[in-house]
Design a protein that fits this description.
With about 180 residues, the chain is mostly beta strands. The protein has 2 helices and 10 strands. The termini are close together.
């Protein structure tokens, strides 16, 4: 990765941390345009980190994703491998509502995820039920994806509970075989 591209990614992530009133429509007309179904059809890889509310690194993980498009539905099988040896699987069923809106469901999503895509950006909002100690907790996700030139998809999610930030997840996606 060259220095100008890396600098652009750092700038983008810096801007994301201070923009709580961002709307998906703010990105109408930006390029490259993200087509969620096209991007995730087939095999995709991701690398990510989870940071606590103070920015401390809590977990690192990789994700192997298999996407299947059938009409107006995208099924994503996400296989997570955490650096501590834990594995997890989530299967999303994402339905295209219209040219900009999506609805997604998974077993650990409370209700459904609501998404809007414009230009290079997609914003998902949903509640995820996560294991915590010997029980579960419901955490709200404000999840942003931005397609970059060259096919890298940057994902930044803010997690909150009772309106208070509890952490952030950052992921980078690429189509399988695109990383040399």
């Amino acid at each position: 990765m060259n220095i100008p591209r890396l600098g652009g990614l750092v700038l983008l992530l810096t801007l994301l941390t201070g923009c709580s009133t961002m709307q998906a429509t703010d990105f109408a007309g930006t390029k490259p345009e993200l087509d969620l179904f096209e991007y995730f059809a087939g095999e995709t890889q991701a690398w990510g980190i989870f940071q606590g509310r103070s920015g401390e690194l809590k977990r690192q993980f990789t994700v192997d994703i298999q996407g299947l498009v059938t009409g107006d539905e995208l099924t994503l099988r996400e296989d997570f491998a955490y650096s501590d040896g834990e594995t997890q699987q989530r299967i999303w069923h994402i339905r295209r509502i219209d040219g900009h809106r999506y609805e997604g469901r998974a077993d650990d999503v409370v209700g459904s995820a609501e998404g809007a895509a414009y230009g290079q950006a997609l914003n998902w909002r949903y509640t995820l039920r996560l294991p915590y100690r010997d029980k579960t907790i419901d955490v709200q996700f404000d999840d942003w994806m931005f397609l970059q030139p060259g096919g890298v998809l940057v994902n930044r999610a803010t997690l909150s509970k009772f309106g208070f930030k509890v952490g952030e997840v950052t992921l980078f996606f690429v189509k399988r075989g695109a990383v040399g």
